[in-house]
Amino acid sequence: MTFRRFAFNNVIRNKRMYAAYFLSSMFTVMVFFTFAIFAFHPGVSGSDMNSSVQQGMEIAGGIIYVFSFFFILYSMSSFLGTRKKELGLLMMQGMSVRQVRLMIFMENMVIGFFATLGGIILGLIFSKVILLIAENVLVLEDALNFYLPIQAVIITFLSFILLFFFISLFVSYILRSRKLIDLIKGNKKSKGEPKANIFLTIAAVILIGVGYTAALIVEGAVVIVAMLPVVIVVIIATYLLFTQLSVYIIRRLKKNNNIFWRKTNMILFSDLSFRMKDNARTFFMVAIISTVAFCAIGTLFGFQTFLTEGLKNNNPYTFDYKTVEQDKEDVAFINETIKEEKMEAKHEQTKLSYYEIGQDVILIASESDFNRFAAFLGEDTIDVGNGQVKVVEFTGNEFGQTEELLNQPIKLNSGTSLIPDEVIYSKALPATDSYYVVSDKDFEELQAPLSVDSYHAWQVTEGQENIIAASKKIEEVLPPYQFYAKDYSIYQLNKEYGLVLFVGLFIGIVFFVSAGSFLYFRLYADLDEDKQKFRSIAKMGLTEKELKNVLTRQTAILFFTPILVALIHGAVALTSLSHFFYYDLTKISTAVLGVFTFIQIIYFSIVRYFYTKQVKSVL
User: Fold this and answer.
1) Nearest-5° angle of CA 304, CA 310, CA 312?
2) Where on the phi/psi map is residue 582: left (φ > 0), alpha (ψ -120 to 50), or beta?
3) Terminal Cα-to-Cα distance of the chain (whole angstroms)
């Protein structure tokens, strides 16, 4: 049997050992390939996207590829950690260090080759699903039909074969520093029970408190200024939390006899204490990567919601039209287009009069005009007595001018002045600032306005599905500073923002799945040790139910400790983001974090089942 055949058979005959590494590598290739299918699709690459969007897609592809490099490198390193004893035995039987390195190199290239092919094949299978998702997220007018992605296949295959080559070369040469005794003993070498430094433990608590407090109290533009120092402080605090604070808590729990000696807690805490030194680094890495995924996706969805809700709030009517010129022909054209698109709409109109009040030009509306539009929009009408003035602030917007208007008198032709006495909130009339409402009688007594605009509003009641088509026709004729279509603006926003959202989702999902894979490797790295340990404990009377309970809690701590920290980090970060926008992101944050938690619970349930099955197989 040739040496190459030996390396190939070593992979084929150890399917269980190689399965996790192979599947994680194949998934990484599949993610990159599906992104490439989308990026090189004729309907995307040949569209009229601007250069910055194209450049953004190239950067996103680079991020996925670079992260894939480090993910596969970590996966391979974790995988080799489980083979120390095997490699030591091969060297005892006469295999040289050079042959061991060559064997590892060849094995990894075999795995890399088939993982790359498998990832491309799976990507082709699921490509239509990805294109359908992209088509809906991107709000594309033309369908993203399936095509033969020759360019994506070539780029993916060459990129990952090259990636596996360099990683295999790098990892195989790491073994030069391994001594034979270290390889043979493998994980049997005592790592020593870690001890917590009390000063670093206190520092972890203080830094987390300072970071969270700073993130939660700042508002507006200060959020951007505080972001970098807060991120640095929280990252340091997270590392100390897992390396120091968690060790301190476990040692305190072990000293509590009521907890430590309760049922099978002794097995659980003893195991956690000896493993914490290794798990702490994995916990830290998973927590940070998961936090990045939460924040990236939460920010993207939050920003989209913020913009969309802002457009809906600031433009309550389906169509509105404002001009200082003659408007009869334009209004007739809008009405005709509405009829052509088989829509029915209610129509209201008025004159918007602007006056010089103090140093500003302010809109003043009559009570009857305001109430007509309030009733048109479904709002409550108001009563304004003679001599009274109401300051109207646009509902949902704080223009910052209301207090100033309350202190400004309005002069009438009779020489008397009106003093505002109340602030009300409404969306009835369009405004970029707060404005006044006076009685009809007082409105007639106002001095000559500086300017008057003709304003029309339409509210579509039937045929809403044709709003976009009608908007396009009208906007081709009327300038955008005169005509505004709310639904069409939201449609264009989602179309332009969709690509950013889609790419961000891709990267966020890659980060989150990678974090879950890190936990999987950390768990399975100790599988042989757990088998031996629980086989010995079972001889002392450990029941199957108790074994399952211990393994469930052990796996749950491994999976959910870093995720819980990441969820808290993410919640604080998204709360800080809401302070930056002055917009409540509670629903978005809860939805994003809830989805990720649900996925993690499913992933945990699957891994726990198979892990428990593996351990029970030796009892």
Assistant:
1) 105
2) left
3) 36
Among candidate residues 65, 157, 49, 68, the one with its CA nearest the CA of residue 113: 157
Cβ neighbours of residue 412 under 8 Å, at least 6 residues apart? Answer: 418, 442, 445, 446, 447
Residue 180's pLDDT is 44
* Strand partners for 390: 422, 437
276 CB-near residues (< 8 Å, 6+ apart): 194, 246, 247, 250
Of 470 and 52, which is predicted with more confidence?
470
The answer to whether the beta carbons of residues 19 and 26 sit under 8 Å apart is no
Residues 6 and 103 sit within 8 Å (Cβ to Cβ): yes
pLDDT per residue as tens digits for the range 578-602: 888 778 888 888 888 888 888 888 8
Conformational region of residue 447, where left means phi above 0, alpha means psi within -120 to 50, and beta covers everything else? beta
The sign of the torsion formed by the CA atoms of 280, 299, 603, 39 equals negative
Q: Measure the CA–CA gap between 318 and 486, rounded to whole angstroms.
A: 6
The strand pairing partners of 345, in sequence order, are 460
DSSP strand pairing (410-411 vs 451-462): unpaired
- Residue 145 token pair: 């039909």
Q: Which of 593, 531, 591, 589 is nearest to 565 (CA)?
A: 593
Using CA atoms, how far apart are residues 119 and 155, in angstroms rounded to an integer? 13
CA–CA separation, 616 and 612 (whole Å): 6
Q: Is the per-residue pLDDT at 303 higher than 50?
A: yes
- Cβ–Cβ < 8 Å for 401, 434: yes
Neighbouring CB atoms inside 10 A of 559's CB total 23
| Phi and psi angles of residue 320, each rounded to the nearest 5 degrees, phi first | -145, 155
Question: What confidence score (pLDDT) does residue 319 get?
Answer: 93
The 10 Å Cβ neighbour count of residue 412 is 18
pLDDT digits (tens, 9 = 90+) for 403-440: 778 878 888 888 888 888 888 889 888 876 788 999 99
- Amino acid symbol at 497: Y
Instruction: Tell me if 106 sits within 8 A of 10, measured CB to CB.
Output: no
Q: Are 573 and 524 in contact (CB under 8 A)?
A: no
Packing angle, helices 150-174 and 51-81, rounded to 10:
40
Query: 541: left (phi > 0), else alpha (psi -120 to 50), else beta?
Result: left
Residue 362 sits at φ, ψ, to 5 deg, of -120, 140
Query: Alpha-carbon distance 441 to 562, whole Å?
Result: 68
- Coil, strand, or helix at residue 168? helix
497 vs 303: CA distance, rounded Å: 10
Which range among 60-74, 268-282, 537-551 shows the weakest confidence by mean pLDDT? 268-282
DSSP conformational letter for 244: I
Helices 586-616 and 486-525: angle between axes, nearest 10 degrees: 30
Q: What's the number of CA atoms in the CB half-sphere (13 Å) around residue 247?
A: 24
Q: Which residue has the higher pLDDT, 434 or 210?
A: 210
Longest dimension (CA), the chain: 112
Q: Are 518 and 81 in contact (CB under 8 A)?
A: no
- In whole angstroms, what is the distance from residue 242 CA to residue 231 CA? 17
Q: Element (H or E) spanning 306, and its range?
A: helix 265-314
Please give the Cα distance from 290 to 513 (Å, whole number).
9
